[in-house]
Amino acid sequence: MKNEANEALKKEWIAALIKSVKNMDWWERKQKAFANRGVKVLRANGDGQIYRDLVPNERTNVIEYGIHFSFLLRQNDHVFMEEQLVHLSARFEENKLVEHSVVSNNVNQGREGQFTPERSHNEEFHSRSFEYDRRKAVQYAERWWNDFNPKYYQFEKDCTNYVSQCLHAGGAPMWGFPSRSKGWWIRGDNWSYSWSVAHSFRWYLSSSDKGLMAQEVTDAKDLLPGDVICYDFEGDGNWNHTAIVVAKDGRGEPLVNAHSDNSRNRHWSYEDSYAWTTKTSYKFFKIKG
Asked: Do the Cβ atoms of 151 and 143 come closer than 8 Å?
């Protein structure tokens, strides 16, 4: 009976928390971003799940939880769904909500190792070109946007690893093993910096002349599903996030999927993110093949 009562109480908490989110700065950012793009929210749903329940005493409960939001949106004549997993924490005193906050977005990877550009004439390589299957890359991005493929090592900061997996699913060949500062590859619990670190991946795409290669463009609208966007939120030259284009919105602008925080069909600018600043820089890469 006690377990049943606890579960019922947790359901009450989740219901109160989802309602409370609409009073938070995060919600205001989201609604403002929709309005700026001329997007109308037709329906918004949230489904919460508690990750950890910390009980320091009988009067206080501190929980960490996530809400899977889904927004049915209309922009011009285009109707589409955006989804996002938001991580939050809350404190209850005698079952009354007294503190509620979004857990900082886990997008800043830092440098964590440096990719070293190296030209292909220094090494034999048998897959100088490949046929990139954008459809398969996007299908993979859709399948795993809110989950982890058990065939790959799971990173705590997973945005670039997720995008690398999508590109590999589209046919991009790995190369450079076993040097972590060379090429683009993963084998078991070993991988190149360019595979998993946003900063190294951005510079790999700018310099690679074999295997996975890309062309930088200046306008996000030039990107197609299966292409990549790199983010420097502070504008300080440290590239700290990566996303993959999966669709276009009603104005022909890219919608992206990403991990950390897990997002689907999110507008490419990320202006609704706590990580975004007015100094944010972007790199737009069209995948060759």
From this structure: no
191-224 per-residue burial string, b: 16 or more CB within 10 A, e: under 16 = bbbbbbbbbbbbbbbeebebbbbbeeeeebeebe
CB distance 250 to 76 below 8 Å:
yes
Return the closest-CA partner of residue 170 out of 143, 140, 142, 133.
Answer: 133
Q: Please state, in angstroms and rounded to a whole number, the distance separating the CA atoms of residues 22 and 235.
A: 30
CA distance 22 to 44: 11
Average pLDDT per block of 10 residues along the chain, 289 residues long: 68 87 92 97 94 76 93 97 95 89 67 62 52 97 97 94 98 96 96 97 96 97 98 97 98 97 97 94 97
CB 164 within 8 A of CB 195: yes
Eight-state DSSP code of residue 259 = T
Indicate whether this model's pTM tops 0.85: yes
